[in-house]
From TrEMBL, chains A, B:
Top-rank taxon, per record: Bacteria
Dyp-type peroxidase C-terminal domain residues: 203-372
Co-factor(s): heme b
Keyword Iron: yes
UniProt name for this protein: Dyp-type peroxidase
GO cellular component: cytosol
Source organism: Streptomyces palmae
């Protein structure tokens, strides 16, 4: 275990035993640059094994599917054993499905499907089984305006699949659900989402037409705000998931100039109202000649600004969802070291965001995204202390 | 009108008035070859205008979304006027969305989205408004085992969108629904589906792992069995839609050899049990040395064989769907001149198909797929006599 960890930490390239292909563990190189979203750079399988789970580090794929599971509640010892079994089953299933020999004849090789995944642990399970997770892992508080459906929220285990297409996700979700069921986990909820196809390095739009994810951290900032803390959790992170129903027609009915004031960015090019290009830092202090703020006091981008949080940034990899004509919106997915980063932002947004009339938070989940697995390892080995 | 029809029939290339790009009306060339399914052959927009609607003639795209609408029931004269308005609105909306200048900033140009569509008329509306549709257009009869949900079935108008990705479909579905609503139509149901990405000329698999669509008609057979009849309806066809829930886990639990006997084809390569390659014609008379049929009496492929119908073939362009862990299956979509072709096959299948324990027909619809629109025309001009 000590040797494996050391190798992982070094980001070394390991050969996975006799006959197995060499896999790159140094996924740090693929970490959160601005250009996390976009088309895959090459037609190759994305390695499952690595220091960090590929569902966070790889380029954002155009389709996602989330699965939440609950574990039975018997004795802590029995439940820990069940969790070990479920994690072993998920590791095997996900590694095989992502490989160039996915076994299921309905799946093409990894190069075509570009499957990535992540597995996370919910805070309630972590507390109940006294797992070694970051101390900051905790459920989110309630926010003003929340209308959360518990049947679509939370869960002991969270699996997020991402791939080039929905077909792959449906087939792999079936394999994941079967493996989890056989190991003793019960399905809680599932949710699928998608992105527009975007060129590598460009930011995908959401159903409001806004670019979503512009202010993502660069690699240096991600090491400070997304991954960690140092030690056993250096290669872990926390996922905050919110299912946000959007009143697309209502927002579209606003005049374009009004929509841009609500967002604080121009929909056309994504530039902040204080700037000229998408990646210009929004200047929340810039004023108009009449003394009013260029980015209004209730603009979404102002209230979400990292300037209020000492520069803290989340790695946002959100998807749109479409569950019928009256239920469309955003699957907000953001990775951060400490879920309190989200709580601070969401408290500001819930209180004043000019977008609020067009948004309803309908589901919520938090999960500790485990460090990656080595080719001879299992997800979650860090949990048992 | 006479001139327009003549040009359409000639498959001529027309320029769509000043400034518009020339569009190819000779979509007959793209008609139902065996290779209807697969990846788009080129990164170009698929023309909306043409003698036949591109939602039938173009290569099958990997994602689909169906929308069904009902018209109000007032007087026949008023409802005919409403229908004219809805068809005009749909023509405008679909032509713009499929073009290289789709207006909505959330849509990329047609070359990226590869949007195609078809608009059809339900038999009840056609009868009520005495529209000029093929005489064979009629609702399907009930079949043994049907468990149809009326809230997901039928409708006065059917729109099927197909595209390279789900994002495009969600955005265009929103535009279509808004246009239909503004013109007086009410939403009835929607349904989305998808395919595995397959190479051009190969047959996509369904969730059972079976290749689906192998026996599609070639171009000559399609002119006889899919399009027509001759006259005003030569460029129309009838869509039969069935939402078929599949017990994927139950079927997968059968041994591989048993699954192949149920289908009458080998899942591995799609070859009939009587042959060696996917496109070998199934020999329903071939016998084993012991006198039994090589393709069993209850095998799916035998009961669906065109040999029982004087060679009649449907153009099948089915999709898989995934509406949750317990509701997955096939959106059977087939085009034919006469819906009685489907009725004959389905009567045989409903009575004896060895697949029946794993299938539930949960929704159904029939629609007359209108001829295409010329650049200066509107879908449905043939309806008014």
């Amino acid at each position: 275990m000590g040797r494996r960890r050391a190798l992982l930490a070094a980001g070394a390239v390991l050969a996975a035993g006799a006959g197995a292909a060499a896999v790159e563990l140094a996924q740090d190189d693929q970490d959160a640059d601005r250009a996390t979203a976009g088309a895959p750079p090459a037609d190759a399988a994305i390695p499952f094994h690595g220091a960090r789970q590929a569902g966070v580090t790889a380029f954002q794929q155009p389709a996602t599917h989330l699965l939440s599971f609950d574990l039975p509640r018997t004795s802590a010892a029995a439940d820990r054993k069940t969790l070990r079994g479920v994690l072993a089953a998920l590791t095997r299933t996900l590694a095989t499905a992502a490989s160039d020999a996915p076994r299921d004849p309905r799946l093409q090789g990894g190069g075509a499907t570009r499957l990535t995944s992540l597995v996370g642990i919910g805070p309630a399970l972590a507390a109940r089984l006294r797992l070694d997770v970051p101390a900051v892992l905790a459920p989110l508080p309630s926010f003003p305006g929340d209308r959360l459906d518990p049947r679509r929220s939370d869960g002991d285990l969270l699996v997020q699949l991402c791939a080039a297409d929905r077909w792959t996700l449906t087939v792999v979700a079936e394999l994941v659900a079967a493996a989890a069921h056989a190991a003793g986990a019960a399905p809680r909820w599932t949710q699928s989402g998608f992105l527009p196809h975007t060129a590598p390095g460009t930011t995908p739009r959401n159903l409001f037409g806004s670019k979503d994810g512009t202010a993502n951290p660069d690699r240096t900032a991600a090491e400070r705000w997304v991954w960690g803390p140092a030690g056993a959790h250096r290669h872990g992170t926390v996922l905050v998931y919110r299912r946000i129903r959007m009143d697309v027609a209502g927002f579209a009915a606003l005049p374009e100039g009004r929509r841009d004031l609500v967002m604080g960015r121009r929909a056309r090019d994504g530039a902040p109202l204080s700037g000229t290009a998408e990646h210009d830092e929004p200047d929340i202090y810039a004023k108009n000649p009449d003394g009013s703020y260029v980015i209004p006091a209730t603009a979404h981008v102002r209230l979400a600004s990292p300037r209020f949080d000492g520069g803290a940034r989340m790695l946002r990899r959100s998807y749109s969802y479409d569950d019928g004509p009256t239920d469309r919106g955003l699957l907000f997915c953001a990775f951060m070291r400490d879920p309190a980063q989200f709580t601070r932002v969401q408290n500001r947004l819930a209180a004043r965001d000019a977008l609020n009339p067009f948004l309803q938070h309908r589901a919520s989940a938090v999960a500790y995204v485990l460090p990656g697995a080595a080719p001879d390892g299992t997800l979650g080995e860090q949990l048992w202390t």
